[in-house]
Amino acid sequence: MKAITLANPDDPRSLSLVDAPAPAPADDEVVVEVAAAGVNRADLMQAKGMYPPPPGEPETMGLECAGTVVGTGEEVGCLLAGGGYAEVAAVPRGQLTPVPAGLSLVETASIVEVACTVWANLGMLAGVREGERVLVHGGAGGIGSFAIQLLAALGCEVATTAGSAEKLEYCRRLGADIAINYNEADFAEELEGSCDVILDVVGGPYLERNVRSLAIGGRLVTIAVQGGPKGTLNLGRMMPRRQSVHATTLRSRPREDKARIVASTVDAVWPLIESGAIKPTVSKTFPLAHAARAHDFLESGEHTGKVVLIP
Amino acid sequence: MKAITLANPDDPRSLSLVDAPAPAPADDEVVVEVAAAGVNRADLMQAKGMYPPPPGEPETMGLECAGTVVGTGEEVGCLLAGGGYAEVAAVPRGQLTPVPAGLSLVETASIVEVACTVWANLGMLAGVREGERVLVHGGAGGIGSFAIQLLAALGCEVATTAGSAEKLEYCRRLGADIAINYNEADFAEELEGSCDVILDVVGGPYLERNVRSLAIGGRLVTIAVQGGPKGTLNLGRMMPRRQSVHATTLRSRPREDKARIVASTVDAVWPLIESGAIKPTVSKTFPLAHAARAHDFLESGEHTGKVVLIP
């Protein structure tokens, strides 16, 4: 089979399509012929050598795909710890999802990782409830655009940040009630003490402003630290307001956790996709051989929504 | 009735016993003749003008007491938002507890606030489970000595910090498995990556070391910031380990929360007190008129366990 590899470990742009041995499935795995593979920011980090795969997982990039189970012909979505940038992937059974009714395999490949990440953090961890105000940073990205739609469907009041008028308009169309241009305004001044939940991808530089934005009982969930890992935390301010700060990644979780998350996500989120309340937001597709161009496109920050590779 | 007041708002030692109007109970309150009132660090802070009572609550200090319900003669423990340093207190019905079988009213007055604080944070919020390693800072204090006993009774492995050989020995007798002298060793070096839950009273200066000490899935709960409010948080370190930081106070909670906490605490903790698994740790009692001396004694840091005032 063909798969993407990093020809020169020191050059993140040296993504090359090469012949590779087909993955040998373990007892609890099936082999999936990949029809489409989602591109995530974590893949860009892995290409830069900053996000190695967990022990025992494939070295190949790619955290989600959709395709056909070899032998049965069943069409599935797949949450992966790696291995999506390839013609064939071995996938733990607990990490398979149905293809939502009405979605193509390309669209399915664009939502598995993001749906599981958003639901694990907003639904299972933060426990968002109808009527709560939720702030989503980076609302025009893959995670953000999915989170806005999910929260709007759940009856939350959705606030978001983005960096241009076009992106803000895009977020409003997805269902955001409040859209703040972070180049023009301080979100903490606008939202001071009002957010029940915040989904953050910036990390350290936003920490103090995120905590200032939290309401009594507010939960801050950080899933990426694009601005840097460390920030200042004011525990004295948080105490009388009973607030919490959570930080998680999905990829590092043990397989039994992932199976639990996939099952809960299919249960809670797939019906919202099938009803049209949440639409996949595929920005652009690239042939698998052009993975480097796909990474450049995602890195540029000009896109809205998700980027998908087609073997 | 007589009650303690701060004669000079600028002098925390000017605690004086004066005549005061008896409190008028609201519809959902009963009047309790106070037999004993626990002294807490929050009272010391209030005397210094740093911890005003929540709106609508008594100005008088005192967050817990035990006594007799006027009219029925029933003996009760009371969780208070204020008003315990007095001969009579008005108490919301939801904040009354039974007197645990075998305990005196003095002992009961020494455990209500601490039991509710420890259970709300370790049981209800952090969800400690049998077999988990839990670090309790300040193990020889009122909160710490109760938390060690509760955790040992629940089958946790208990680590603790204290500042002298005598206090460490006291903590071991209460059930601590690991006791670290913070003047001689860095607890984060000893416990690196091993603690499922940490109960913290130091705050900012301990934040980085507390997070270093957390295991995968670890929860840090800060209930006081005796060392200062602000610290550095490394979200990047926390993410792959799926950790969380919580900060809470009990006093600021709405009454319905307090009623829920009192009910859960009586349910989960009172049986452990009645079986003798958790013993009250009254260090010293003072007459109510000597509240200033009681505060000096608690402030000195020489005590182990709780300080109680007797009207």
From TrEMBL, chains A, B:
Molecular function (GO) terms for this protein are: NADPH binding; oxidoreductase activity, acting on NAD(P)H
Q: Which InterPro entries does the record cross-reference, listed alphabetically?
A: ADH-like_N, ER, GroES-like_sf, NAD(P)-bd_dom_sf, Quinone_OxRdtase_PIG3
Q: Which domain of life is it from?
A: Bacteria
The answer to keyword Cytoplasm applying to this record is: no
Name a Pfam family for this protein.
Answer: ADH_N
Q: Which SUPFAM superfamilies match?
A: GroES-like, NAD(P)-binding Rossmann-fold domains
Does Oxidoreductase appear among the keywords? Answer: yes
User: Which keywords describe this protein according to UniProt?
Assistant: NADP, Oxidoreductase
Give the protein's recorded name.
NAD(P)H-quinone oxidoreductase
What species is this protein from? Corynebacterium liangguodongii
What is the organism lineage in this UniProt record? Bacteria, Bacillati, Actinomycetota, Actinomycetes, Mycobacteriales
